Automatic annotation (TrEMBL):
It is found in: Cell membrane. This is MFS transporter. Keywords: Cell membrane, Membrane, Transmembrane, Transmembrane helix, Transport. Its main location: membrane. Pfam families: MFS_1. The chain crosses the membrane at residues 7-31, 37-58, 70-89, 95-115, 136-156, 162-181, 212-238, 250-268, 280-310, 367-387. It is a multi-pass membrane protein. InterPro entries: MFS, MFS_trans_sf. GO terms for cellular component: plasma membrane.
């Protein structure tokens, strides 16, 4: 293995380790030290909105001779903001929301730049293995980081988490300086050259694709109630400790990892309609049980176990439904020239509802949390009936 490959893997570890641990600490502090869901709602809406919008902005070509400069600027910006945070946090609590969003955006941009250049830093014969290592690391980090962060929150304050993140950013910056970047722009992005209207018309012209995207949009809107309700209920109502909440949060990635194992070997041999119906029912069930936990469960340990199971189910069912939608759209669209752009557009349409949902449900949770969860569960079941009734066509997912 070459030196630059080792440096790149070390950069991958350092650039995400501090970010993931600090992000969990930020979310917990916002939930723990505010009396209502408003602050956490704004924080989550801002982060999810950036998650939807930043990839669209990054669809534009990025000149490679500026990649290294952009990376250095982003890391320096993160270092400065984290340093300021350690000074200002006690006097300006809302800075935690601003910092969390900025760090999330810079992390996304940096990940995009590294993805575009990885093939020039890793020998071709080990490229596939290197990508597999990175994916394994990220899954492991996303499972362990909330648990680790939750354990330490009881002993150190958030300024120390910021200092840890600052140190990982400094080390990552030194790794970045040692990495080679191509001097000549060699990448072109066909999606930016394809018109928006042709892609949209190709989607809308197919009635069953339109129905599937409509279903995905509404179900995403409704199940996002879980994303905002579960943390608020866990911290502000049930009063979980940080390490308990960390264990619950890790459940999502456990479910996601299970889905990635199940999808190629089991779902691939099942009809799309049946599999998508199951994913919708699982999402309805999680919200139903969340509302029932809020009303009926008063034992802390039982609540932790049930919330862990529910978060695992959401981590399994939400990505599963997204993969099934992509599989259907990819199978249905025959125009290879527009296929990549259409898949991107279908993903964007499905996810556009999430920021709106988080804002709406975040406000509604101020009224009656159990009723909100039960109502969202009922509406998802209505969408299951709609999908079952009007979606006729089926095929094997390949």
């Amino acid at each position: 293995m070459s030196v630059k490959t080792v440096i790149l893997f070390l950069f991958t570890i350092l650039s995400s380790l501090g970010m993931r641990i600090f992000s969990f600490a930020c979310a917990f502090y916002i939930l723990c030290y505010t009396d209502n869901p408003t602050a956490f709602t704004l924080y989550l809406v801002a982060i999810v909105t950036s998650s939807v919008m930043v990839p669209l902005w990054l669809e534009r070509d990025t000149e490679n001779d500026f990649n290294k400069k952009i990376g250095m600027i982003l890391h320096l910006l993160n270092i400065i903001l984290l340093f300021v945070f350690t000074v200002m946090f006690d006097t300006y609590f809302n800075y935690i929301i601003i910092l969390g969003v900025i760090l999330h955006v810079t992390h996304q941009v940096m990940a995009h730049l590294m993805t575009k250049n990885v093939q020039h830093m890793v020998p071709a014969e080990i490229l596939e293995r290197f990508i597999s290592w990175c994916e394994t690391y990220h899954v492991s980090l996303n499972i362990l980081a909330p648990v680790i962060s939750g354990l330490f929150i009881g002993y150190i304050n958030i300024e120390h988490f910021a200092l840890f993140h600052l140190m990982t950013e400094v080390c990552a910056l030194f790794c970045l300086l040692a990495l080679p970047f191509e001097d000549v722009a060699q990448f072109s992005n066909e999606r930016t050259r394809q018109g928006f209207r042709p892609r949209l018309s190709l989607l809308l012209d197919k009635k069953e694709v339109s129905r599937l995207l409509f279903t995905a949009f509404i179900v995403n809107f409704l199940i996002s109630a879980f994303s905002i309700a579960m943390p608020i209920i866990a911290i502000q109502v049930i009063h979980l400790h940080a390490y308990q909440f960390g264990i619950v949060e890790a459940g999502y990635m456990v479910g996601w990892a299970m889905m990635m194992r199940i999808f190629p070997h089991y779902i691939a041999h099942r009809a799309l309609k049946k599999s998508y119906q199951i994913s919708i029912l699982l999402q309805a069930l999680t919200l139903l049980l969340l509302g029932m936990i809020l009303m009926l469960v008063h034992n802390l340990i039982v609540a932790v176990l049930l919330l862990l199971i529910l978060n695992t189910l959401v981590g399994l069912s939400r990505p599963l439904s997204q993969q099934l939608v992509r599989a259907y759209v990819g199978k249905t669209v025959r125009n290879n020239h527009h296929k990549a752009g259409i898949l991107t557009l279908s993903d964007t349409i499905s996810q556009m509802s999430i920021p709106i949902s988080l804002l709406c449900f975040g406000l509604l949770l101020n009224l009656h949390q159990a009723i909100v969860c039960l109502s969202a569960s009922f509406l998802i079941f209505v969408m299951w009936i709609y999908f079952t009734r009007f979606f006729k066509r089926d095929f094997q997912v390949e």
